[in-house]
Amino acid sequence: VMKIELKRIFTCKTYTIGHIYVDGKFVCDSIEDTDRGLLQTTPLDEIKAKKVYAETAIPRGTYKVTLNIQSPSFSKKAYYKQFCNGYLPRLLSVPGFDGILMHRGTTAKSSAGCIICGYNKVKGQVVDSQKAWEKLMRDYLQPAQKRNESITIQITATYA
């Protein structure tokens, strides 16, 4: 099992910053929507009550990740069509959320609950996102998929 860890280190009204590790090795940073303190174990009605669409980070917890589902929207974008034919890392069974992907971007506005990869060198955003995302894909996720290895992501917060 390949284990991705997303350790959220900072959250505010508009975004959340984290560090992404694969099997204990730092790969890149992340930016997500605001962490509203939701957990995978939070009752669904409470998640739905606290969630603000496209402004809420997914609940902390552990999820399976697949590269076997083609994104209808990303498969139409030239870059993703060429790089992975729209097969992006997708988190499965996220309570109250659907279609949660890991992809490139710059700010929490690039995300509707998704995890944006990059390097947090500018306040409130990530830079070199394409480089970071491709590193995660080429060096870790695609080889794991070729080995038929299952992939999980554990999301925690150091500020909680």
**Residue-averaged pLDDT, rounded?**
96
Proportion of helical residues: 10-25%
Report the radius of gyration as a whole number of Å. Answer: 14 Å
Q: Shape, please?
A: globular
Strand content: 35-45%
Structural commentary:
Helices cover 20% and strands 35% of the residues. The protein has three helices and nine strands; from the N terminus they run E-E-E-H-E-H-E-E-E-E-H-E. It has helices spanning 44-50, 78-84, 129-146, and strands at 2-11, 16-22, 25-32, 61-66, 90-91, 100-104, 115-122, 125-127, 151-157. The chain is globular, with a radius of gyration of 14 Å. The mean pLDDT is 96.
For the structure shown, list the relevant keywords.
eight-stranded mixed β-barrel; 35% strand; alpha+beta; 160 residues; single chain
Strands, helices and their partners?
Elements (H helix, E strand, L loop, with lengths): L1 E10 L4 E7 L2 E8 L11 H7 L10 E6 L11 H7 L5 E2 L8 E5 L10 E8 L2 E3 L1 H18 L4 E7 L3
Parallel strand pairs: 1-9, 6-7
Antiparallel strand pairs: 1-2, 2-3, 3-7, 4-5, 4-9, 5-6, 7-8
Short précis:
By secondary structure, the chain is an alpha+beta fold.
